[in-house]
Here is the input.
Amino acid sequence: MFFALALTVLLAAACVGPTTRCVNPLTYTDIPDNDVIRVGEDYYMVSTTMYYCPGAPIMQSRDLVHWRIVDYVYDCLEDDDVYNLRNGANAYGKGQWATSLRYENGRFWALFIANDQRRTYIYSTPRLGEKWTRSVIDRPFHDASLLFEDGRVYVVWGNGDLYITELEPDLSGVKPGGVDQLLISSPREGYMLRAEGAHIYHIGDWYYVLVIDWPAGGVRTETCWRSRTLLGEYEPRTILQGKFDGRQDGVAQGAIIETQYGDWYAMMFQDHGGVGRIPTLQPVTWVDGWPILGDDTVPVKEFEVNLKPDGEDYVWASDEFDAAELALVWQWNHKPLDGCWSLTERPGWLRLTTGQLAAGLPDARNTLTQRTFGPQCSSTVLLDASGLQPGDFAGISAFQSSRADIGLRRTEAGLELYAVQETPQRGPDRTMTRATRVLLCEPAAAPQVQLRIRYDFDADQAWLAYRWEDAEWQEIDDPLQMRFSLDYFTGYRTGLFCYSTQVLGGHADFDWFHQE
Here is the structure.
């Protein structure tokens, strides 16, 4: 025990030099349900992206502050009506949730539930960038967390009542006759949200299960349950609780991680309105064997991380569309039609070709999306709509359940510039409909137009704008009131789209995409 403590002190002393300034929130963009691991000097984080494809992004960092997307776990979960947006099916608000990421036996492991499929997926690979292999378990392990223990593998999962289930050693399925029982039953009285988002760890002499819950009249809270034995009696303690950054939302749900120098940190997210659920890094102090986050459980805005600064963020970026492949910052809304997009048919341009009729943007194929970021940002494109056919729409969207689109459409009379807002509404019979407001509709001055969406996440508003050639920007003075709604359950993204309501084969070209 003394040797281990002395080694920790020596390692901490070895990290003498530059530290990294952490200013929360990190990246200021939608990276929820994180799990973080360390492999050597590299840190890896996985996040929820639900119905976007490819899914389950893997981000890498060496300072825990700056993160870069380096891989995705899968291209698409299933080739069914849900992911092909057919017959009224979709995965909005569902798809991949709360992935558990581990590195064990020389492999990366990723386990998550897909709520539209009502089952659990397990992927693994020896190296990032290589193909992930998968197993499927026909049980939905909600918000699950993996634990590798002495040649055995367990998953802790559930909501309110947390369960532990033993898996086969190769994670190919549930182990017959293995552990499969209630582990923790959290209090029912006085809580708006009971324990979920479990992360289990075996550290020293204790087993720890970290969960998010929400006391009535309070804020989202991170609670730790601990026991000296895996299946023993667990006791709870609040380890992070408090309003943060001028908002009423608390910071909770995520992972704790030990650095190579023996320091501990926690990655927790905060619901932050239209921009989504954004990550924060919190220091961890061990007090009587408990991991206490922030400043004595209060979320911290700024502090120094005992790691050397390492590069810049790469979770969003501008794009000139002059590469041979799409950049990793892009994701499709649901499964793309691979034969209906190209970076080579018109070199230096992204071409989107219509391949499946749609009633509107929510069920359109091949909408290409990228995260927005706060507190303010703008997305601008140059669109060439010369290839549109009657009934085709092309442009950009502030994409969520309540959304705003601006672009060009072709009618029998010719090209039109249009802008709309669309919001869901619940009728007297409680059925959902969508109300559309037309903000702009006029003949297009040319087939090429610059389009812009300006986001302000302090006010949660987005403004649409356009300009012809080098003319002045014309901003529509009727902003979208952005809302983070659970029917989509993701932060606002900018979507590039081209879809048809009448005939197939038309196309739109995008010369560049600029994030500012």
